[in-house]
Write a structure and sequence with these properties.
By secondary structure, this protein is an all-alpha fold. It is built from 19 helices and 4 strands. 35% of the residues are buried. InterPro entries: Fido (IPR003812), Fido-like_dom_sf (IPR036597).
Length: 471
């Protein structure tokens, strides 16, 4: 049985506190491994990942591993209830000697022998349950909150700090820590009976931009987030001069008001990655697009669509990506230039969302190592770059390479930018009657943002792929 990547039975972000409250869901930790063995997907545990230089990456085997993980999530949810979905959230648990360890790091890394794999699943589920029980205890310890505004503000700030510290410590600040942190805060708002239904917006506005996946938060960032959310909930903001500008790194701790201003250390900001978008725009200007390749014309295609084939084998929803490609084909048939409006229509289909606007904040990739800064003029600049994608004076391979890199490095959407770049590339080529029958060498390669030679090399690779299409 194949489970779609976006199956609602896999989602953690939709879980309410009622879904996960340990008091509402009886659980016997002593039988977990037996239950995991009993409900494990039919067909057995997939083969572990082994790199073979002679064979290359086996997409089918990798898909089987991720599908097995998804099927296991569905099975555990049916057995225990929706709360069990969180077993893949990578919340660490304590070993016998007290160390914290994450027992499941995703299907590709954690699939080993059948018995070890099932034991890892059971351990991850136990650790997630323990995390929920710790949250329930923390909630109880901080309730009821005082009603006097200033006392309430202090209590809210202490509670939020404890919650953030608990999630960060248990997760190791991996890719899941920030979403789980936001979720835990929303759960507490529910338990504390904070009025209003839009807790998502309340938390996102208070902590948005302060925390990132894969980046461990500094104490000052935790303090600022706690103060911001407490102020929104109570209307009380402490006098700015009453707080030190930094917070000890051995947090959680209470911020001291006893330090005079002259003794306070300067605020410490996390190291900021260089702006990859600025670098790309400089490279874009220096690359010799007109001379990197010769003009290559269509039509050129076979029965095989290499871009569609590649996208259909990734872990995201195949149906939605292929439906988006149908929209691209319709726009090609209609004619006209590449525009952001067209990209957004395709992206709405890819992400199954009602709107996909241009981002309004900085964006990051590569686990926070690559940053794409935001400025108010970016949408206009990006639109101008898209307009150049159909300039017939520049050889087709160069135009296709340039627009592909434009989308990757402008990073216009909150999610799915690699897919959007592939669709833009497809559109530019298809307008000239070219459909690549091989696209994996192009789409699997990481193209350095700072190297004009690499950008020109991408154009030459596309030219080679076009020439290799049987005519």
């Amino acid at each position: 049985m194949t489970i779609d990547h976006d199956d609602p039975r896999l989602r953690i972000d939709t879980l309410t506190w009622a879904d996960v409250d340990p008091a509402r869901h009886p659980f016997d930790p002593g039988t977990v491994l037996d239950v995991v063995r009993a409900v494990a997907p039919a067909g057995g545990v997939p083969e572990p990942y082994r790199y073979d230089a002679t064979r290359g990456f086996d997409h089918d085997a990798d898909h089987a591993r991720w599908n097995w993980q998804r099927a296991m999530t569905v099975a555990l949810g049916e057995q225990y209830g929706d709360w069990a979905r969180g077993w893949t959230a990578e919340m660490a648990g304590h070993t016998a000697d007290g160390a914290l360890i994450v027992r499941w790091n995703g299907a590709r890394d954690s699939t080993t022998t059948p018995e070890e794999t099932l034991s890892a699943v059971a351990g991850a589920l136990l650790d997630w349950r323990t995390f929920l029980e710790d949250l329930a205890e923390l909630f109880t310890g901080h309730l009821p909150l005082p009603t006097e505004p200033r006392a309430a503000a202090a209590a809210w700030e202490a509670t939020i700090t404890s919650l953030v510290a608990t999630v960060a410590a248990r997760s190791g600040a991996d890719e899941h820590w920030y979403p789980v942190c936001a979720l835990a805060l929303k759960w507490f708002l529910t338990v504390a009976e904070v009025p209003g239904e839009d807790h998502d917006a309340l938390v996102d506005e208070a902590i948005g931009g302060r925390f990132w996946s894969f980046v461990s938060p500094l104490g000052a960032e935790v303090a600022d987030a706690a103060e911001s959310l407490a102020a929104r909930l109570t209307g009380v903001t402490p006098p700015r001069d009453g707080w030190p500008d930094t917070w000890p790194q051995d947090w959680p701790s209470r911020r001291s008001t006893e330090l005079p201003t002259a003794m306070r250390a300067p605020r410490i900001w996390p190291p900021m990655a260089p702006d990859a978008l600025t670098t790309w725009r400089q490279v874009r200007q220096t690359a010799r697009w007109e001379h990197a390749t010769e003009h290559v014309s269509g039509p050129a295609r076979t029965a095989r669509d290499g871009i569609a084939d590649y996208l259909s084998k990734q872990k995201y929803s195949t149906d939605r990506v292929l439906a988006a490609l149908d929209l691209v084909d319709a726009d090609v048939a209609e004619g006209g230039p590449l525009t952001f409006a067209r990209l957004e229509v395709w992206q709405r289909k890819v992400l199954a969302v009602a709107a996909a606007p241009f981002r309004t904040t900085h964006a990051w990739a590569l686990a926070g190592r690559e940053r794409y800064a935001y400025r108010d003029e970016l949408p206009e600049l990006f639109e101008a770059c898209l307009a150049e994608a159909t300039d017939p004076a520049v050889p087709l391979p160069s135009r296709a390479a340039r627009v592909y890199l434009d989308v990757l490095h402008f990073h216009p959407f909150a999610d799915g930018n690699a897919r959007s770049a592939a669709l833009a590339l497809y559109f530019v080529l298809a307008r000239d009657g070219v459909v690549l029958d091989r696209a994996t060498p192009l789409l699997m390669t990481r193209w350095p943002v700072s190297d004009a030679n690499a950008a020109e090399g991408l154009a030459r690779l596309i030219a080679v792929l076009i020439r290799q299409i049987p005519r």
